[in-house]
């Protein structure tokens, strides 16, 4: 049983990006709580199942964040389904999810699925462009979206997504101040342990991604920086 609400630190790996076997082993054996597999562009069944097979050599929990129906691969420990709360087009809203359920609805084991209420903050990111995201203008916008996810929709996860840019900790704190039951994820732009620790003060789980491919040593340091706070 995956207990994601107990996670403090997670690495996210993109099936479209290359990682050698040595670095993959170091990530999986780092002491992180889990590895999420997911990306925005060029994520396919083939590159997803290939990465899953390589991660399966290790005991770390492995979760698929579903980015498109074509890349749904069986065999993961758990599945996250993003619902972009500030999307400006139907790609990431309920119509898109409904289309997926037409194909897989009867096969889904719902005890292994959680919906993430995504709030996208970086207008230059690929996910913002893909979803036509309407970027929050101020803290009140952010709080409203967080309450939408947490109190109205009762989503189990609120995901603050800066996607390649380091976010404003005060905005993460503002989300923390209004959510009552959801688990708070933060992801985006973390380059070192100090940034990871800063966001871990407010987020329940810090997700580290791009730095894995840019500086593996700094990526690995984020595990201790986050875990030392708990």
Could you state the CATH homologous superfamily? Answer: FMN-linked oxidoreductases
Order of helices and strands: EHEHEEHEHHEHEHEHH
Gyration radius, to the nearest Å? 16 Å
CATH class: Alpha Beta
Write the CATH fold name. TIM Barrel
Overall description:
By secondary structure, the chain is of the alpha/beta class. The chain has one domain: FMN-linked oxidoreductases (TIM Barrel), CATH 3.20.20. 37% of the residues lie in helices and 18% in strands. It is built from nine helices and eight strands. An eight-stranded parallel barrel has the order 1-2-3-4-5-6-7-8, surrounded by five helices. The longest helix has 14 residues, at 139-152. The two termini are 22 Å apart.
Key words describing this protein structure:
8-stranded parallel beta barrel; TIM Barrel; globular; single chain; 230 residues; 9 helices; alpha/beta
SSE layout and pairing:
Layout: E1 9-13, H1 21-28, E2 34-37, H2 45-55, E3 62-65, E4 78-84, H3 94-104, E5 113-120, H4 126-131, H5 139-152, E6 157-161, H6 169-178, E7 183-187, H7 193-200, E8 205-208, H8 211-214, H9 216-227
């Amino acid at each position: 049983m995956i207990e994601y609400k107990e996670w403090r630190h997670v690495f996210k790996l993109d099936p479209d990006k290359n990682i050698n076997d040595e670095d993959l082993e170091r990530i999986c054996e780092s002491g992180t709580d889990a590895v999420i597999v997911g990306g925005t562009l060029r994520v396919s069944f083939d590159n997803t199942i290939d990465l899953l097979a390589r991660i399966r050599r290790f005991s770390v929990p492995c979760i698929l964040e579903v980015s498109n129906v074509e890349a749904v691969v069986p065999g993961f420990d758990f599945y996250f389904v993003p619902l972009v709360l500030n999307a400006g087009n139907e790609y990431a809203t309920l119509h898109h999810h409904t289309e997926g359920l037409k194909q897989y609805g009867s096969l889904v084991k719902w005890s292994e699925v959680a919906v993430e209420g995504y709030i996208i903050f970086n207008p230059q990111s690929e996910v913002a462009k893909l979803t036509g995201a309407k970027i929050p203008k101020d803290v009140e916008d952010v709080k409203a979206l967080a309450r939408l996810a947490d109190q109205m929709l009762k989503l189990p996860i609120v995901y603050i997504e800066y996607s390649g840019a380091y976010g404003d900790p005060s905005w993460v704190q503002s989300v923390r101040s209004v959510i009552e039951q959801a688990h708070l994820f933060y992801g985006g732009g973390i380059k070192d342990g100090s940034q990871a620790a800063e966001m871990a003060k407010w987020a329940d789980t810090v997700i580290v991604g791009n730095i894995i491919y840019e500086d593996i040593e700094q990526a690995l340091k984020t595990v201790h920086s986050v875990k030392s706070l708990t």
